[in-house]
Specification:
Elements lengths: L6 H10 L12 E3 L3 E2 L4 E7 L5 E6 L9
Antiparallel strand pairs: 1-3, 2-3, 3-4
């Protein structure tokens, strides 16, 4: 049975940012390498405390000049 997040959990996770499990809020998480395609970057993560697995999906939000 697949564990789901509530809409409230999703909103709280997106607001707080990366670094804690969206299910139990533990910071004991592990992630795989990043996968890159044309429009998205994704990373699969697993919480070592509660066992919840999820995928972060990143989109381009800005560009900055560095040199």
């Amino acid at each position: 049975m697949k564990k789901n997040l509530t809409e409230k959990q999703k909103k709280e996770y997106l607001k707080s940012g990366y670094g804690k499990c969206p299910k139990c809020k533990s910071s004991d998480i592990e992630g795989s390498s990043f996968d890159v395609d044309d429009k998205y970057v994704t990373q699969d993560l697993t919480c070592n405390e509660c066992g919840f697995s999820y995928r972060d999906v990143y989109t381009l939000s800005n560009v900055e000049v560095i040199a």
